[in-house]
Amino acid sequence: MSAAPRVVVLAGGVGGSKFVLGVREALRRRGVADTAAALTVVVNTGDDVWLSGVRLQPDVDSITYALAGVNDAERGWGRAGDSERVNHELQEWGAGWPWFTLGDLDLGTHLARTGWLREGLTPAQVIERMSHRWPLGARLLPMTDAEVDTVVVLEDGARLHFQEWWTRHRATLAPARFENPGIETADPAPGVADAIAAADVVLLAPSNPVVSIGPILAVPGLRDLVRTTTAQVVGVSPIIGGKVVRGMADVCLTAIGVETSASAVAAHYGARASGGVLDAWLLAEEDAALADEVAGRGIRSLVAPLWMTDAARSAAIAEAALGAAGL
């Protein structure tokens, strides 16, 4: 049997969680017994936030819970079967955000994380400790150990934390731009550079290109790591038939002047041969007519079914992405 491919995925959000599950399953179907040694996930931490004295890492937790099989698949976030007694009590005290629900089990995660951070552990060390609870079948790394949040600057100049803009206002307030205060002095988290350098393939999950993948690539030095790796870099379109699959990524794309189309997002990432990060791009069947347009940008285009409606289809998408890298 040939050696297991070394896979690095850049991911965030619900789309990232589903895709990572698919990659793990695709590796298992290839006979890879130790998927944790083969699969590294570099997770967006740009939407992290301090709330009621605890540090929340929504994307880290979504991917962790999904890999552990304890996520609330219907809501797309949090733990399955969670209760909200503590959240209601916080609201009675006028603490936290009444529009931002924290489940009791979820709060246990946040409290454990915050305690470890207060003891001096780094975010990367905290995630490693968290991963010991469940057999995740993947190694999770934060994009950086630095504290970098996402701020949404509205057209009137008002500034909101991303979570307030996204969760409370459902992205209905027109953004002028997105900022990540502190990212200029951040570094890739320990292990990220080595994982990308040793990878056989780097996959960009079908996550929000602006607020999930964008902050990862904005960490100083990380984009260059992707551009200079010897591995093939393959992206999976988060746009199907000219529409976002989930969430409000179209609002984010419009704010940075990118059309909501599979071809435009591929152009946003850019061809590695022209200073971008992509070698190949997976398009949905609904966007097959855009394949030549993508190829004309110097990016190999491949067409596949991209609806991640169940584990089998997510695994098939991941297999197509691995195949696009010649693996």
In short:
This protein is of the alpha/beta class and 327 residues long. Helix content is 38%, strand content 17%. Strand 3 and strand 4 form a beta hairpin.
Keywords:
globular, single chain, 14 helices, alpha/beta, Rossmann fold, seven-stranded parallel sheet, 38% helix, three-stranded antiparallel sheet, 327 residues
Question: Could you please describe the fold and organization of this structure?
Answer:
The strands form four sheets. A seven-stranded parallel β-sheet has the order 5-2-1-9-10-13-14, sandwiched between helices. It contains 14 helices and 14 strands. It has a single domain, classed as CofD-like domains (Rossmann fold), CATH 3.40.50. The chain has helices at 13-29, 35-38, 58-68, 85-92, 104-118, 123-130, 162-168, 192-198, 213-218, 222-228, 249-255, 262-269, 291-295, 311-324; strands at residues 7-11, 39-43, 49-51, 54-56, 139-142, 151-154, 159-161, 175-179, 201-204, 232-236, 239-240, 243-244, 280-284, 300-304. The longest helix is centred in the first third of the chain and has 17 residues, at 13-29. The two termini are 14 Å apart. By secondary structure, it is an alpha/beta fold. Helix content is 38%, strand content 17%.
